[in-house]
Amino acid sequence: MTNLLILQPGALAEYQEWLSTIKQRIVSVRLRMALAASRELILFYWDLGAMISQKQAQSQWGDKLIAQLSADLHKAFPDIKGLSASNLKYCLRFFQFYSADAPIGQQPVDQLPWGHNIQIFTKCDSVVEARFYIQQTLEQGWSRDVLALQLKSNLYARAGKAVTNFSRTLPLPQSDLAQQTLKDPYTFDFMAMTAQFNERDVERQLTQHITQFLLELGKGFAFIGRQYHLEVAGNDYYIDLLFYHVTLKCYVVVELKNRKFIPEYAGKLNFYLSAVDSLLKRSDDQPTIGLLLCRDKNNIEVEFSLRDMNKPMGVSEYTLVEALPDNLKGALPTVEEIENDLQQLQQQAGEAE
Predict the structure, then answer these.
(1) Residues of the chain with CATH 3.40.1350.10
(2) Which of 75, 146, 200, 248 has its CA 20 to 30 A from that of 331?
(3) β-strand pairing of 235-245 with 250-256
(4) pTM, 2 dp
(5) How far apart are CA 88 and CA 19, in angstroms?
(6) Which residues of the chain form beta strands (DSSP E)?
(7) Residue 152 burial (CB < 10 Å; 0-12/13-18/19+)?
């Protein structure tokens, strides 16, 4: 300890700043090393899958080849993970899935960890679909669990499928980006509650659900408020959910209906968008977008309803948990009940202040 520096305050601050720079360099180098190691591993698994595929084609050994290869590799390299028979089969599937499309060097798969890759090439039906999930994972930083959730909910089939009037009410490229932001249907199965609950339970569930709700909405949505108050011509109006989208640079009004779409809903949403544009929108914001979420809709009816609306809006369905035992169905709150509980909580919070 006697060899350590004894510094005056000024010199100590200079040393601490210098030390912080070195620490940042070490973190950066370690990250690059980890990424490089991950890429090398992915490329190795690709080559391994290619060699297994070629050997199987040249011989009559079939799956016995993989079992034998795994045993021999374990014997030669007992400390190396990833040489199990199951992982060698994944290597083979990995090569077979992508090899017919393009060389490995033209695929972005080496930018994802192996566990993410396994989720994608075992769950996707085509390379086009796989590329969608790879790109989304890279852009949004999905963990393996979040990726698995998006695959299970079939995000690929839902993204950009909402019925909208964006092509007529928004300029390019804003209209295309907004279209891809919306889904149809939205999956809100996390809203199901299968037991008796009190106000504290609702509050706790909402804290958990807002994260899941934002995840389902997608990257870029910032939550502004629920039952957001607007005053127009001396009258009070309340928006179900108000968001700001940081990529689209606009407010997003979300209205939730627990029934089938009817044309009158579009008119009310158009009114809310006009109010937000007048009362909240700044000069550097893009036009406010509306999203109407219904339990059911007829696409032709929706298209007719939006045809002459001058504000950008879309209509999507949403799904909740449907398959429940009969003895539990009565315990599920309706959307209206959840809304009532939310209003009571909001009122109590205001009284507490």
Answers:
(1) 159-352
(2) 146
(3) antiparallel
(4) 0.68
(5) 44
(6) 163-164, 186-187, 221-232, 235-245, 250-256, 289-294, 313-319
(7) exposed
The whole-angstrom separation of Cα 276 and Cα 271 is 9
DSSP string spanning 200-242? HHHHHHHHHHHHHHHHHH-TTEEEEEEEEEEEETTEEEEEEEE
Any idea of the CA torsion for 258, 264, 269, 275, to the nearest 10 degrees? -140
CA-closest candidate to residue 121, choices 95, 145, 139 = 95
Listed residue (101, 149, 146, 145) closest to 126, CA to CA: 101
pLDDT, tens digit, 9 for 90 and up, residues 123-135: 999 999 999 999 9
Strand, coil or helix: 76: helix
Q: What angle do CA 294, 262, 332 make, to 5 degrees?
A: 35
- Fold of the domain spanning 159-352: Trna Endonuclease; Chain: A, domain 1 (3.40.1350)
Closest CA to 177 of 160, 157, 158: 160
Which tens digit of pLDDT belongs to each residue from 167-206? 999 998 889 989 989 998 988 766 554 444 333 343 344 4
Residues 6+ apart with CB under 8 A from 296: 259, 260, 261, 317
